[in-house]
């Protein structure tokens, strides 16, 4: 719609101002006549006082009206800001509610999907063992490995439990590619460790290492005590997959930091055609950050 021109309102305001002036002039003159004018009160003096008193009252009125108008605008702006903030808070609350529902649905689906997968593995295993025991054994190893990866909580598990599933993984991997990897273990294997840590390191060696040469096999050494877990690994680098050892180890470093804080060291390097890795976890020296997370 078109905005009306300001001239009609301005004309009305000028007429209203003139009317106020005449009324004030008349009232002040009547008040002075009723009180009684002094001897020096002639027409010029009277007009001087009337004019200035009117101007004084007019300016007071204008300034008061301006202050009231500005104060009202400020209050309206404040109310608008509060209403806007309230609307944003309501939108954020609704968005968070939608995200929570999405996460809940995803969690429920995550529970359903592995359950269906494990049932499928069981069906395949029952059918395969009737015709090929070796194939059935591989299916069972894959099912146990998947169950461990999907259902193990992100809390500590015994080292020996992780090693059992590593053997399942190596057993399956050897069905595809001959592998020369020696796992040396020493100490107390009942010590707890973050799940999938050892699995990630071994999987990294298998995927990015050259383990075909029996004279130059990969070595995965692990020792554990009440106070410390040490892991050293060495493997020849596969030139075709030389750009590996990136994302998996980066993710592992983040998981180790959240679980052990500054109480661990993860170091790796390449030396010629070989890749070396060392992981040290101090079990009795968890940082304050990790203690706060696990309260």
Characterize the structure shown.
By secondary structure, this protein is an alpha+beta fold. It contains 7 helices and 7 strands; from the N terminus they run αααβαββαββαββα. The strands form 2 sheets. A 5-stranded mixed β-sheet has the order 2-4-5-7-6, with helices on one face. Helix 3 packs across helix 4. The protein is rod-shaped and about 130 Å long. The relative contact order is 0.06. Mean pLDDT is 78; it is low at 287-295.
- Put simply, the count of helices is 7
Regions with pLDDT < 50 over 5+ consecutive residues? 287-295
Strand order of the largest sheet: 2-4-5-7-6
The topology string of helices and strands comes to HHHEHEEHEEHEEH
Alpha carbon gyration radius: 43 Å
Distance between the termini: 63 Å
Number of strands: 7
Query: What composes the largest sheet?
Result: 5 strands, mixed
Can you give the mean pLDDT? 78
Shape: rod-shaped
Strand content: 5-15%
Structural class: alpha+beta
Binned, the helix content reads 55-70%
